[in-house]
């Protein structure tokens, strides 16, 4: 019997192997969600040409989507807290599907932007629920590993979704890319309905003496998360523009993004193997590699080879970012899993939308040469937050809350 038929009231979390079907379904759904959010990134030149808008205005398709998520994640998570978790998650996948259909058929930029806003509302709920869902599928001491496995789907969306959609869009048109994405969304919805078990909600931490420390730690993780995404997306939203300006042929753009992005799986695997016992060290290494790669991009640009090499280093580091911050946030136990998911979701999308908007300002103002340096400064700021907040990014086991003995474990 597929685990999706389990009753939520009788559901008992198990180990990672027992939860494999559900974790796979969440990873696939997460891949679809991230790809839907970021698919315009590689298609900006095509969309801007077809709809007769500037590339910086087309980039606001990412901004508007992300700001919808940032604004709605907490209120929608609160408003839907009594709904069955599985039904709610499936509902968001249906809305993703509808949004992509509308984009594929949209006659004007305004209709595309409206459809993207609809997808943003779904995204606001999806990640808030899915992060908490993954932590409930397994016993508490395995939550970090479960989150790392699910966020491989997010990493794959960042790493593979954009280059694959870019290659497809370059070959057959950007509208066809959204049609294909619609089909993938529908498949993910069906598999999630079949494989994902129903689990109960709830799980608010106790109001004990450590509650203040846990909430402070969660706020610190959220701040570092927002800065990291802000720095990354200030540059990444316009990666296709950068690579073309560095001399890469349009036909080579998709394959180049795919090859660079695939290297990010190295970072994702690195995080998955270490998060349970080396959260702080893994976070510092991850952000250091991202900052170094983005800074090197600025130094190497507009040289084609150097720009590609720097982007590869940057991608390796960013492949670990989603897993690092989701795990760190859940580990704080500063709120219920769904509220933690909403905060991670909202702050990441503040970074995504703010980065796209900031990148547009820099692109139209100071120029493309300044983009990488702007992004690098923001990633370094995130690293500084991590370095000065040991309680939020502790050493030791991933199942120890801030302020407990488990935090004292060294790395």
Report on this model:
This protein is mostly helical. The chain has a single domain (about 15-200, about 210-400), classed as Growth Hormone, Chain: A, CATH 1.20.1250. It is about 75% helix and about 0% strand. The chain is built from 16 helices and no strands. It has helices at about 20-40, 40-50, 55-80, 85-105, 110-135, 145-170, 175-195, 210-235, 240-245, 250-260, 265-275, 280-300, 305-320, 320-330, 335-365, 370-390. The radius of gyration is 20 Å and the shape is globular.
Structure at a glance:
With 411 residues, the chain is mainly alpha-helical. It has helices at residues 20-38, 40-51, 55-79, 85-105, 109-137, 143-172, 174-195, 211-236, 239-245, 250-262, 264-274, 279-300, 304-318, 321-332, 337-364, 371-388.
Q: Structural class of the helices, strands and pairings?
A: mainly alpha
Q: Which consecutive residue ranges, at least 5 long each, have pLDDT under 50? A: 1-7, 398-411
Task: Tell me the number of helical segments per DSSP (H or I, 4 or more residues long).
Answer: 16
The figure for the number of domains is: 1
Ends apart, CA distance between termini: 43 Å
User: How many whole angstroms does the radius of gyration measure?
Assistant: 20 Å
Q: If you average the pLDDT, what whole number results?
A: 83
Largest sheet: none
The 3D shape can be described as globular
Strand percent estimate: under 5%
């Amino acid at each position: 019997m597929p685990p999706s038929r389990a009753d939520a009231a009788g559901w008992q979390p198990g180990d990672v192997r027992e939860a494999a079907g559900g974790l796979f379904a969440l990873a696939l759904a997460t891949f679809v969600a991230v790809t839907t959010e970021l698919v315009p990134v590689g298609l900006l030149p095509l969309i801007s040409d077809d709809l007769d808008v500037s590339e910086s205005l087309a980039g606001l398709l990412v901004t508007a989507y992300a700001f919808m998520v940032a604004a709605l994640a907490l209120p929608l998570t609160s408003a839907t807290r009594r709904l069955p978790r599985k039904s709610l998650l499936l509902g968001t996948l249906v809305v993703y599907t509808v949004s992509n259909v509308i984009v594929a058929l949209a006659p004007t930029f305004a209709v595309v932007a409206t459809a993207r806003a609809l997808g943003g509302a779904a995204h606001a709920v999806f990640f808030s629920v899915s992060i908490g869902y993954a932590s409930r599928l397994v016993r508490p001491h395995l939550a970090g590993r479960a989150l790392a496995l699910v966020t491989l789907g997010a990493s794959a969306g960042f790493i593979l979704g954009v280059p694959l959609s870019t290659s497809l869009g370059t070959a057959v048109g950007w509208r066809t890319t959204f049609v294909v994405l619609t089909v993938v969304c529908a498949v993910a919805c069906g598999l999630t309905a079949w494989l994902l078990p129903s689990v109960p909600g709830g799980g608010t931490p106790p109001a004990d003496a450590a509650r203040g420390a846990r909430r402070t730690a969660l706020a610190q993780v959220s701040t570092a998360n927002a800065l990291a995404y802000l720095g990354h997306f200030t540059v990444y939203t316009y990666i296709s523009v950068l690579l073309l300006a560095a001399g890469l042929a349009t036909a080579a753009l998709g394959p180049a993004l795919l090859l660079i992005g695939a290297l990010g799986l190295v970072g994702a695997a690195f995080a998955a193997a270490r998060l349970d016992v080396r959260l702080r060290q893994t976070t510092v290494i991850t952000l250091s590699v991202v900052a170094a790669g983005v800074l090197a991009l600025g130094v190497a640009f507009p040289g084609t080879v150097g720009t590609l090499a720097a982007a590869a280093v940057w991608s390796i580091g960013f492949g670990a970012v989603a897993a690092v911050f989701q795990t760190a946030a859940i580990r704080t136990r500063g709120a219920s899993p769904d509220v933690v998911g909403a905060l991670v979701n909202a702050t990441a999308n503040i970074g995504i939308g703010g980065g796209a908007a900031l990148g547009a300002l820099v692109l139209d103002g100071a120029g493309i040469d300044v983009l990488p340096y702007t992004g690098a400064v923001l990633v370094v700021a995130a690293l500084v937050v991590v370095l000065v907040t040991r309680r939020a990014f502790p050493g030791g086991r991933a199942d120890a809350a801030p302020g407990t003995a488990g935090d004292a474990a060294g790395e």
